[in-house]
């Protein structure tokens, strides 16, 4: 198992959310071997606690003073009322993992009223992979832990995608027409790392626009996808209004993306690269508690910066290029952003071998930038 850089509270209960396959259960079992472990994917626990959530107290030994883990807590949201009582009355500490916040939000259940913090588990990062990190491999298989260790990551990712459709969508009754949802997933993959146009996606998969909009929300609720908003703070220009769309992992995106004579490889590779950088930024930001809000920047004249990070640690702008040689005209959007926000730290992550400066902007090779991302984002 790879070591994770996740920072968690030592004395306070916490939720640990993340998509299936990111390693939540493996990490919790390794880090808390003495915990009482309740796995709600186990039908014995699930059916018993669904019928009577108070039975949770019967699973905890008298006088127990260590951690209690409830895995996939969203399957029985009513358990949180019992958890709340045990935290208040017995001082127990809980780790509550979940791959979806949908049921927790939709049922308005007790979220422990601030008595539990929230943490996120992401795919592996370049730092966590250490010497096993390979940019070329990451662009193909992504960074789900099993995809980095399985002999056939393509086969694993194919099974992963179909498992989500079957288990998360079908069993939870989130959609009525699985065939339509499968078509939607393919159409959504064409929106990867691009400005989201829901109407266009609806036309591509021949599904009503409102239904497609609901499908996008399902992906977000299952933590499978994210929308990246536009940075507009004190803008001097007219900005675009729509967010960009990302599946959470480059390997999952490539598995969903159709490939054929009409699909340009460079277009898929470019979206995969931007996805990889985005998932790395999200993971480092969350795991290290950096507190940045994440955006992209795009003017009505189509000047664009791939990623903008804004927070107490400053303003950071990052442009991502696969090309091995960068000229001034290739980073016109980044230069425009710096003119508007001269306090920003600006970087280009690119495919070349040398670290250098171009018109005052630092160019960093991708295979160096991702392992060093935490240090770059910590700079003041």
Quick summary of this structure?
The chain is α/β, with parallel strands linked by helices and 380 residues long. Helix content is 39%, strand content 18%. A six-stranded mixed beta sheet has the order 9-10-11-12-14-13, sandwiched between helices. Strands 2-3-4-1-5 form a five-stranded parallel beta sheet.
Characteristics of this structure?
single chain, 380 residues, alpha/beta, Rossmann fold, six-stranded mixed sheet, five-stranded parallel sheet, 14 strands
Number of helices: 16
Query: Major sheet: order of its strands?
Result: 9-10-11-12-14-13
Structural class: alpha/beta
- How confident overall, as mean pLDDT? 91
CA-atom Rg in angstroms: 22 Å
Strand content: 15-25%
Can you tell me the overall shape?
A: globular
**Could you describe the largest sheet, including whether it forms a barrel?**
6 strands, mixed
């Amino acid at each position: 198992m790879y070591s994770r850089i996740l920072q968690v509270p030592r004395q306070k209960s916490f939720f640990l959310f993340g998509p299936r396959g990111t390693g939540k259960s493996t990490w919790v079992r390794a880090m808390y071997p003495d915990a009482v472990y309740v796995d709600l994917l186990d039908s014995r626990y699930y059916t018993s606690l669904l019928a009577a959530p108070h039975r949770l107290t019967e699973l905890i030994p008298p006088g127990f003073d260590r951690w209690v883990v409830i895995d996939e807590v969203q399957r029985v949201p009513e358990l949180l009322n019992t958890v709340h009582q045990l935290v208040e009355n017995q001082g127990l500490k809980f780790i509550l993992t979940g791959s979806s916040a949908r049921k927790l939000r939709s049922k308005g259940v007790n979220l422990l009223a601030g008595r539990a913090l929230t943490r996120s588990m992401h795919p592996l990062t370049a730092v966590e992979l250490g010497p096993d990190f390979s940019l070329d491999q990451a662009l193909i298989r992504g960074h789900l832990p099993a995809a980095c260790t399985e002999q056939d990551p393509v086969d694993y990712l194919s099974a992963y995608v179909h498992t989500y459709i079957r288990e998360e969508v079908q069993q939870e009754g989130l959609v009525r027409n699985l065939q339509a949802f499968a078509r939607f997933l393919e159409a959504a993959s064409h929106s990867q790392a691009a400005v989201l146009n829901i109407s266009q996606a609806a036309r591509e998969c021949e599904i009503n626009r409102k239904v497609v909009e609901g499908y996008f929300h399902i992906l977000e609720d299952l933590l499978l996808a994210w929308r990246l908003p536009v940075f507009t703070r004190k803008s001097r220009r007219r900005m675009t209004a729509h967010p960009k769309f990302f599946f959470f992992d480059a390997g999952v995106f490539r598995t969903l993306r159709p490939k054929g004579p009409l699909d340009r490889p460079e277009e898929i590779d470019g979206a995969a690269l931007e996805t990889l950088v985005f998932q790395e930024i999200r993971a480092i930001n969350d795991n290290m508690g950096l507190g940045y809000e994440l955006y992209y920047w795009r003017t009505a004249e189509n000047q664009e910066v791939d990623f903008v990070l804004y927070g107490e640690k400053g303003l950071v702008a990052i442009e991502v290029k696969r090309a091995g040689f960068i000229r001034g005209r290739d980073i016109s959007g980044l230069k425009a952003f710096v003119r508007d926000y001269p306090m920003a730290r600006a970087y280009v992550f690119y495919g070349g071998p040398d670290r250098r400066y171009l018109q005052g902007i630092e160019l960093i090779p991708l295979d160096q930038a991702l392992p060093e991302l935490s240090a770059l984002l910590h700079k003041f």
